[in-house]
Every structure is written in C-alpha cells, then in structure tokens.
Design a protein that fits this description.
The chain is mainly β. 6% of the residues lie in helices and 56% in strands. The chain has two helices and 27 strands.
C-alpha cells in the first residue's frame, strides 16, 4: 500500500514537471531557465497520531531575464506530500512561484505579478509580516522563509537617500496553503474534536468544513524604512486579509466550520540596532480585528497588540550564532472567548558549524511563558557538498491542549532529508 502510494505520487510529480518543461521553447533554455530548489524528505512518528510515516518531495524552477530597464521572472513549484497509516493520503500540488514583469528607472522600481513579499526584521514570528501568503502545510516544521509563498501583487518601491518607501496592492486574494484534510498537521481535527488555538471542542465532532468564497482583493500596505545614526527603523500601515483561515463555528443539526479571512488594519513600527556585541531587533504591531469565538460559538473580532524583542549574537566572537526573541500578544475583548487572549513566549535558534564548516548543528525552539507550550527542533546537517545539504532532524511537541505544542503533542517525528539550492 505504501509503495503504491509513493509510486503514484512520484508518477504525478514527473508528469507535471514534464508538462511544465514541454511548454518552454527550447531556445529559452540558454536564457536563464534553472532549477532553483529540490528537496526530498522522509520521516516517522514516534507516537500514533493516526499516521506512521510521511514523505515530502519539492522542486522549484524559474526562467529570468532582463533588457534595459525591464526584467521578468517566470516560475513554478511542485509539492508532493504523502502520509501513511490509518489516515493515509498523497497529494501533488503545482503552484506558482515568482511570475512578474519589473520596470526600474533610477530610484523607482515597479513590479507587477506574483512575487515574494516579506516585511519585518525579526525571525520566525514577525507581527508586521502580513502581506505575504502563508504556507501552513507543515505548520512550523520549516523556517519562516520556507513558510511563505508568492502572492499576486502590484508593488512600487522608491529608494531615497537613506530611506525606502514600499507600497503594495494585492488586487486578488489568494489564501494560505493548508494541509490535506487527513494530514496530522491540519489545524482542525473533527475526529478527536479540537481546533488549534482553542483546544478540545466536543461540539465539532463530525463537523463539515467549508472553504471561504472570496473573489475580492487581498488588501494594500505602505512601509517606510530609514537608516539612522546607529540604528535603522521603520513604520508601516496595512489593510489586509488574514491568509491563514480562521474557522467560524456554525451550530445546527449538522455543524459547519466555515473558513473566514477577516480584514484587519495593522499599524506597525520596527527598530534595529547594534549594542553590547549583539544585533537587537524590535517590532510592534496593533491590529484592529483578530478573529475570536465566544463560549456561545458566536464569531467576533477584537483589537490586539503584538510586541517582539529579539537579539542575535555570537558568544565570545565564536562561530556559534544565537538568536533569542521575547514575544507577546494581547487581545483586547470584553467577552469570554474560547481563544487564548494572552500569549507570551521565548523563541530562538542556536547554530554551530564545525569540522571546518562541513557540518552544522542547529536547535530551534519555542517555549511558552504563561502557558505550558514547548517545541524543540534539533537538527544535524552535512554541508560538505556544494549547494546541497543532507540533514537529520527531530520535531518535538508538548503543552496544554489549547497551545500549539499541546495540539501537536502526539506528532513527535524524526526526519531525514536532502536539499539542494542552486
């Protein structure tokens, strides 16, 4: 059974890739067509979350060129996911990468098309990074840049003397990439009734899930960043939809979990400076509408404040890199709600290269400060092959039922993989 599922997944992957390549005129191969990334990963679960093992295959290709003030990019990516056990599935998905036309003249650059958008300065949990499209297919198993997808946008950037003005319009809304309905990483479990961020919710057992039907725009934003004397800073304002869905409970004879993507106005500030042998980064974001569910299953939105303060340093001027971040989120509501309204955590990463740079040991972690919520990601990587990595990693979760660590507490997994970036 597992072998047949893997063969089907690989066959689909090869057919889609051949289809993409056959659409490219042979003459363009010498004009910048390239494979950007390739990745293979297999893993096994130590507990029994409904699956025994998983497999992942990813690839991305692009064609880029320029002529004077004009440049372009054409790109696509392929993701094949497989899960084996009681909740087995395989899914192959072809998605757009960066596909844009860009014009640049002196200090002005205008880009139209699908493109990568990442605002903010802090790692992993930037509260002002709202313009991009989230990839939630593996929750937080990957680092932040790998959890973002290209998004349809019109972007204008002005590079002044010591400052930058960045304006973005999202004319079409495209929601986040979510896990398969049977995936152990899905944020909604209607078999063992619980929702990520809320915890156990017996009333949703057997509920039907409905996707949002949104044909409008995704929003817009403006960000201004500048270089000061000894520090960099910036301000931003955004009116955007939340790309990751929130599930509104609609009670009835047949309970429905309706995905919604509410608009929110987000006003943010950021700061970066070097002091005491470390690089300090801070972000503050005030949001007008965070989705919530009351104890009576009523849907509502309320304002929230997010603050992140982080430091990056190299102890003793060594090659070891340490990143630490204190994060807090406070949602202001006058109603009793099922969601967490206070979230305080310490996140970070410790990275140490050794054996003349041929090996790297990493540890990513997130620890809740006001609730029991833990995630640890130790990883050992061999980097001795040019532009390639071979890694062995573990993802370990624990915590209270309404936290991320608690929701995935049965999903501890060990993986081995290969990755190439060209």
């Amino acid at each position: 059974m597992v072998g047949q599922q893997m063969r089907r997944a690989w066959a689909r992957s090869v057919l889609v890739l051949l289809g993409v390549l056959s659409a490219v005129p042979p003459a363009t191969w010498a004009e910048g067509l390239q494979v950007d990334t390739l990745r293979l990963e297999v893993g096994g679960f130590s507990d029994s979350p409904g699956a025994s093992s998983s497999a992942l295959a990813q690839g991305a290709m692009s064609l880029k060129g320029s002529n004077g003030s004009w440049s372009y990019a054409l790109g696509a990516r392929l993701d094949a996911h497989g899960q084996f056990g009681d909740r087995d599935f395989d899914r192959v998905r072809l998605d757009y990468a960066e596909n844009y036309l860009r014009w640049q003249h002196k200090d002005l650059r205008v880009t139209v098309g699908t493109q990568n958008l990442m605002w903010g300065r802090v790692d992993e949990i930037s509260p002002i990074d709202r313009m991009g499209r989230s990839d939630f297919s593996r929750v937080m198993l990957d680092k932040l840049p790998d959890r973002r997808r290209a998004v349809p946008a019109v972007r204008a950037e002005y590079f002044g003397e010591g400052f930058k003005l960045d304006g973005v319009l999202l004319p079409v809304f495209d929601d986040a990439v979510m896990p398969h309905a049977r995936s152990v990483w899905n944020p909604v479990d209607t078999v063992n009734p619980q929702i990520l961020g809320i915890g156990n919710l017996p009333g949703i057992a057997g509920a039907r899930m409905a996707k949002a039907d949104i044909n409008g725009a995704g929003g817009a934003g403006l960000r201004w960043t500048a270089e000061g004397e000894g520090f960099d800073y910036g301000f931003s304002v955004q009116r955007v939809r939340q790309s990751q869905p929130y599930y509104k409970v609609i009670p009835g004879a047949s309970v429905v979990l309706q995905a919604v993507h509410p608009f929110s106005t987000v006003v943010g500030a950021e700061l970066e400076t070097e002091r005491m042998g470390a690089t300090w980064r801070m972000e503050v974001a005030a949001s007008s509408a965070v989705p919530l569910t009351t104890h009576a299953f009523q849907y509502r939105t309320d304002p929230a404040l997010n603050v992140v303060v982080g430091a990056e340093f190299f102890p003793g001027d060594s090659e070891t890199r340490v990143t630490l971040q204190l994060a807090g989120q406070r949602t202001f509501t006058n109603q009793a709600v099922l969601d967490r309204t206070r979230i305080y955590s310490l996140t970070g990463e410790i990275e140490h290269p050794f054996a003349n740079g041929r090996w790297r040991a990493d540890m990513r972690f997130s620890v809740g400060l006001n609730d029991r919520d833990r995630y640890f990601n130790p990883q050992l990587t061999y980097t001795g092959i040019d532009q390639q990595e071979i890694y062995l990693a573990a993802h370990l979760f624990s915590g209270a039922a309404d936290t991320l660590g608690g929701f995935y507490r049965r999903n501890d997994t060990v993986v081995v993989g290969w990755r190439g970036k060209f």
